[in-house]
Specification:
- This protein is α/β, with parallel strands linked by helices and 624 residues long.
- The protein contains 23 helices and 16 strands.
- The strands form three sheets. Strands 8-9-11-12-13-14-15-16 form an eight-stranded mixed barrel, surrounded by five helices.
- Helix 3 runs antiparallel to helix 4 and helix 3 runs parallel beside helix 5.
């Protein structure tokens, strides 16, 4: 940087050259001295070469080394200073006249003083030019032997150390300023890197990803193809909850390292947040993108070793490509996000590439979200009740409350359409509270030995005041808490153990019962049954009427039923559709059954009618 200061403002070199060459030309004209004419030509040639080289090298200084720049400047500077110093000495030695001597000495000394300050960034050059201009002039003054000229020579020699001191001070200030600026720049660069780097994995963070994407998109042309891979680690929260965050961080570091290894050269690998990663890279075609996605998937799903323990982590991938799926970074990210969502919906642990139908699905989900909020306010939703029957007596022991949506324009919408949307958007909290309140109100009019079961979403349980909302619903409906049964899934215990325990404990104290729903489809653990006060287990319908029903599923049902009998818990078999299925689960040891064989979900008035018919039949049996 000090050397480059020599090449700043080549115009100052041109001004100095014009002044000294002009003075020499005037001196040559006035004195009619041949050698002054020659000196004028030499100075003009060297000065022009210096200005030209300064312009050329200043524009191309990044390609030239520091040594080359300094050497080139030294040759020109020293040549010009020596030529000018000798010219001034010539005018004194050959007595060309007082006016000519004054003109040349004044120009020479002025040039020497000015150039020493200008070139203070390199003291060798500053001192060398000053000496080459002043020393020959001083020597010529001494050689004449005249007192006045000897005095002038002494003054010139004293000028040299004075200017060296001044140039040295300028050099110190300039060096310190450059050093300070360089330190500040390095610190700023370091802070910028830290601001764009994820502290856990060392990958780019969101800010770093945005910066890389902007720089890449600025250089995109019509033929450029870019792929964005959005990776989400499936159920990674379980690793943190079960093994602790330090182990989780080590897994994230290993995932980051594996992504670096399999990502194409020049790719930006970022941790987008939590357990999500993004790989953003130029790509030749979709076939290569598919290969990269496959390599990423295989690499992440390869078992991890943490402190000798073997861990398996699955991942879902969403991929979008430019220009196929978008023309800018935002559209590309939205496409990859939708593709990732589709991969999760389809069962996780797979890769999905974006297609236009996903955008339609997004629009559909947004419509459902907006209309669902309105539907709750306009009472377009209804609660239907499906009976849960005692397999020994055939009597209705409970009803499961199921929500139904009858849209005024679109007709009936299936729960599979709007419940996932409600969970994604948080509407499930409002919807769940509404269902609980409505179910409690209806159940209050049933016989005291019939309870109502309500499904709870993990989001509803984690919402502030969740237990208080249930209590308020029971109090306003006037329903005995012991007749309320809340159905929860196994994912609830994995995702939020402490909040779940507090919620269950608070409601269990007033008599509310809890059932474990869809048992056998998730990370089933006897630990949940041992830890939480569950009164009922619902065996998932896939074991009763699924595609793989057989000896293994029968054995599982028997094992669960035997466990329930030992623990004094009811075992409910879901999805019963035929008498054969009813007989099979009853023989296996299940105590309760639910399914189309007994009844579909019906409106509240039909549920009351079923109970009334059952009571009338009991009366007839007693009287008969």
């Amino acid at each position: 940087m000090l050397v480059t200061t020599l090449y700043t403002q080549p115009s100052s070199l041109a001004i100095g050259a014009v002044a000294t060459v002009g003075a020499t030309a005037v001196a040559a004209y006035v004195s009619q001295a041949f050698w002054l004419g020659v000196a004028c030509v030499v100075l003009a040639a060297v000065g022009a070469a210096r200005v030209l080289s300064a312009i050329v090298l200043a524009a191309d200084d990044r390609k030239a080394s520091t040594q080359t720049l300094e050497l080139a400047y030294e040759i020109g500077a020293f040549s010009y200073a020596l030529a000018l110093g000798l010219t001034a000495a010539y005018t004194i030695w050959w007595e060309t006249g007082a006016q000519v001597e004054l003109l040349m000495v004044a120009n020479t000394l002025g040039y020497g003083i000015g150039v020493s300050a200008r070139n203070a960034g390199r003291m060798t050059i500053a001192v060398g030019q000053l000496a080459l201009t002043c020393v020959p002039t001083a020597i010529a003054c001494f050689a004449t032997g005249e007192l006045t000229r000897i005095a002038l020579g002494m003054t010139i020699l004293l000028l040299i150390p004075a200017m060296i001191s001044i140039a040295g001070n300028i050099f110190t200030v300039l060096r310190d300023s450059i050093a300070s600026a360089e330190t500040s720049r390095k610190l700023a660069d370091k802070m910028q890197r830290l601001a764009r780097t994820d502290v856990v994995t060392g990958l780019a963070n969101r800010a770093g990803l945005d910066h890389a994407m902007i720089e890449t998109m600025m250089r995109v042309d019509a033929e450029t193809r870019i792929a964005l891979f959005w990776i989400d680690l499936d159920r990674f929260k379980e690793v943190n909850d079960l093994l602790g965050h330090p182990v989780g961080d080590r897994v994230l570091k290993q995932v980051a390292e594996r992504l670096r290894e399999v990502s194409p050269d020049g790719a930006t690998v970022a941790r987008f947040g939590g357990d999500e990663f993004i790989v953003f890279t130029r790509i030749a075609d979709r076939q290569i993108a598919e290969r990269v996605a496959s390599e990423i998937h295989c690499e992440i799903m390869r078992p991890f070793r943490i402190d000798g323990e073997r861990l398996e982590v699955r991942a879902s991938l969403g991929v979008a490509m430019l220009p196929d799926h978008g023309t800018d970074a935002d559209t590309l990210m939205q496409g990859a996000d939708l593709a990732l969502y589709r991969a999760k919906v389809n069962g996780r642990a797979q890769t999905c590439f974006f297609d236009s139908s996903m955008t339609r699905d997004l629009v559909r989900r947004r419509e459902i979200e907006e209309e669902l909020r309105i539907a709750i306010q306009r009472d377009e939703l209804s609660i239907f009740f499906q009976p849960i029957v005692d397999l020994d007596t055939g009597r209705i022991r409970a009803f499961e409350a199921l929500v139904r949506w009858f849209h005024p324009e679109k007709g009936e919408l299936k729960p599979d359409e709007f419940i996932p949307v409600a969970e994604e958007t948080g509407v499930i909290v409002t919807l769940g509270n509404w269902i609980t309140a409505q179910a409690a109100r209806v159940a209050a009019g049933w016989p005291d030995d019939v309870s109502v079961a309500v499904n709870l979403s993990p989001l509803q349980i984690r919402a502030p005041g969740a237990a208080l909302g249930i209590k308020n619903a029971l109090r306003e409906a006037g329903l005995d808490p012991r007749r309320m049964e809340l159905e929860v899934t196994e994912s609830l215990f994995i995702e939020d153990n402490h909040a779940t325990a507090a919620f269950i404990d608070e409601l269990s104290e007033i008599g509310v019962r809890f059932a474990l729903d869809d048992f056998g489809t998730g990370y089933s653990s006897l630990g949940y049954i041992n830890t939480f006060p569950l009164s009922k287990i619902k065996v998932d319908r896939s074991f009763v009427s699924g595609a793989h029903v057989g000896r293994k599923s029968d054995a599982i049902i028997r094992a669960v039923a035997e466990m329930g009998s030992t623990l004094g818990m009811d075992i409910v078999a879901e999805g019963l559709e035929t008498i054969e299925q009813v007989q099979a689960v009853r023989e296996a040891g299940c105590t309760l059954g639910q399914g189309y064989y007994f009844s579909r979900a019906v409106p509240d008035y039909l549920a009351a009618m079923l109970l009334a018919q059952e009571r009338e039949q009991d009366i007839r049996q007693v009287n008969g």
